[in-house]
Amino acid sequence: MLVERLKEPDTSLYKSSLENLSSLIRTSTSSMTSVPKPLKFLRPHYEPLCELYEQWKDGEEKRLLADVLSVLSMTYGEEDKRLTLKYYVLGKKDATSWGHEYVRHLSSEIIQEYNARMESEKETSDLKQLALEIVPFFMSHNAEADACDLLLEIESLDELVKYVDKNTYERVCLYIVSCVNYVTPPDDIVILKTAHKIYRKMEKLPHALNIAIRMNDIELMKEDFEACNDPIEKKQLAYLLARQQINIESEDDDLNEILNNTKLTENFIALARDLDVMEPRTPEDIYKSHLENIRKDYRGGNVDSAKQNLASTFVNAFVNAGFGNDKLMVDKDESSSWIYKNKDNGMTSAAASLGAIFLWNVELGLTEIDKYLYIEDDNIKAGALLGIGIVCSGIRNESDPALALLSEYIESDKAQLRIAAILGLGIAYAGSGREDVKELLTPIVSDTKLSMELSSYAALSLGLIFAGTCNSDISGDILQVIMEREDKDLKDTFARFMGVGFGLLYLGKQEACDVALETLKVVEHPISKEFSVLVETCAYAGTGNVLKIQQMLHMLNDHLDPEKEDDKFQAYAVIAVAMIAMGEDIGSEMSLRTFNHLMHYGELVIRRAVPLAIGLVCASNPEVNVLDILSKYSHDNDQEVSLNAIFAMGLVGAGTNNARLAQMLRQLAAYYHKDPNNLFMVRIAQGLLHMGKGTLTINPYHSDRTILSPVAISGLFTVLIACTDIKNIILSKSHYILYYLICAMYPRFLITLDEDLNNLSVSVRVGQAVDVVGQAGRPKTITGFQTHTTPVLLGYNERAELATEEYLPLTPVLEGFVILKKNPEYVVEDMEITR
């Protein structure tokens, strides 16, 4: 009847009819499965109403009719014509009165229209204005995700800051930051900058600093740090910066102590005491040889072989890392020292293991290592130099002991002392960007008379120290060297480390590596292809960039003959897939499926690299299916595949004490008891599994798996690239490369501190992390939790939250060092159950 009225010539009835029609549409309710009655009855009248609209003169009635048609077009309009948007613009432009579903449909049509206009290069400012009119509606109706999507699609995300308030900022930021992995550059930086602005607007500095760290923007970090006026909150910011090993100077001594990580060793030892794991462990405690099913007469022969002693050296170093005590090395007389049970280069690793045992404890560590600097044997002296570098890893010290002690050996006439000093400097100053160290090492890179091993290690150390800085001087020097070096030098197995150093300069910098890639094309030697892969791997590490992963997989399509062509780049491309995909869960899962295919159909060089890539994707995250895959590969016919698979098992279980994996490794030790190389690798894996007696992790991600530590990923990457030629590097004379894993080691603890930075024991719930992005209400962020008292250890997929509201944490993520403030609004409940 109302529609018939509109067709009559009496114009006075139009307005009331339209208003009645509008209210009927608005107020109609229906069940979820049926169409609202008014819309159902208006279906046959939709076309006549459209024709009527064209005949009417402009006026309020025509605008009212346009509004009705706009709503009806949601269901009856042709999809491509975007009629809802067309009639909305012609109507009264009051979207909010028609309800949520209408506004969502309108926003989708705005996005379609925007994309269509961008293709034909037409003006879009009116669409942006329309979008900004409906964003407040979304914000006030718990549909923040829709608002973010709309602004993201029409490239106006920076406008979001105006519409956010204290009730919505958490959900908005959580949603947009979780989108970062799925957008193409430069949108990812736009999103992070918007989130940063929102946090700054809400004065949530720890949240803002986490975003600045994720962007790797030093200036922004300094700005956030300086903007903090609350001295306690500033200390919390300092802990966040120290975890990422970012060098920011401060006037305040207390802050400097935190920024320099000076107290890390003290807190780690306190954690160990709390967990009752201070008792040093011997390698035999780890191997549990009595559980291996080997007949005694077999074992008797090789108990004291040099290879097995070398393995025990590493196991001892990894298991007692950071504890400052062990049963083989510390406080032993020279005559009975474990060092002399090793041969040649084995002595180097044995002396260097002291650095790992005293990890982070610079003063005690240097005192213990110092005596080995005065021994005549160059192997031991070299080990002491490397140990000095290791003990200073991740710690900044005012007196710079590593630089003072190692710089005098940089020009030594003995190659092994030079190598040890170069590697020691790289590990000690990783990520610091120190110019004075650069001046020491650059001449060694450039000098073409030196061995390729020396020059490559110098380039590697520079890459570590200047990771992610795009330093043009260093990259220019390395490019110059590969143009000038002879063919035999570039074919040297150590040349790969020069490529790693070159790649690390561009760590996480994405397109900034394009200039370097173009320059590499000029080099005619096949090494340029290897370097290109390494550079792109580092530049896109952890970004989840699908196009780069596809590009790497294309390289793996070619079946090359290793006799005629250089195929090393394919091994690096496999590791590249893991490095790029490890940033987010879906990518990691997809990469594991891809590796399965590569293992079936790939060439030998590819198959050898696959276990390493799996180890990187799941570092310190022993998932059952991954362990089963690696267990299968550890019995492969090709020895290098099995060696790498065993090492990957160590990486996957690193620092977790996983009982299932420990059993697998014991079985492998029995299986390979006659093969010294495989047995050596099994022992290393056992050492990694019980690293730090189960208190450490080597996963490069922290802060709820959102922030990638450049130093940690650099150390892991170096070791993995070394393992692509495991027989000539790790199993030959350069086993000390395994100490690069120290760069990635960090305690996986949660320590709560009071306002005076003293340990404060509180109840926390620790459980499996749950993804709550975009969920309604206040969903629980963990599931299957247990309640513990801090300090506690956190696994890879675990998250912690405070059990009571007595304290307020100063940081968004309960991980590492967290300062707690008393909650002024907390009321102790009378009904508290007494224990």
Automatic annotation (TrEMBL):
GO cellular component terms given for this protein: nuclear periphery; proteasome regulatory particle, base subcomplex; proteasome storage granule
**Coiled-coil stretches:** none
How is this protein named in the record?
A: 26S proteasome regulatory subunit RPN1
Q: Where is the 26S proteasome non-ATPase regulatory subunit RPN1 C-terminal domain?
A: 773-826
One MF term in the entry's GO annotations: protein-macromolecule adaptor activity
UniProt KW keywords: Proteasome, Repeat
User: Where does the RPN1 N-terminal domain start and stop, copy by copy?
Assistant: 1-292
Per the entry, what this protein does is: Acts as a regulatory subunit of the 26 proteasome which is involved in the ATP-dependent degradation of ubiquitinated proteins.
What the record says about family reads: Belongs to the proteasome subunit S2 family.
What organism, scientifically named, is this protein from?
Anaeromyces robustus
Cited InterPro entries: 26S_Psome_Rpn1, ARM-like, ARM-type_fold, Proteasome/cyclosome_rpt, RPN1_C, RPN1_N
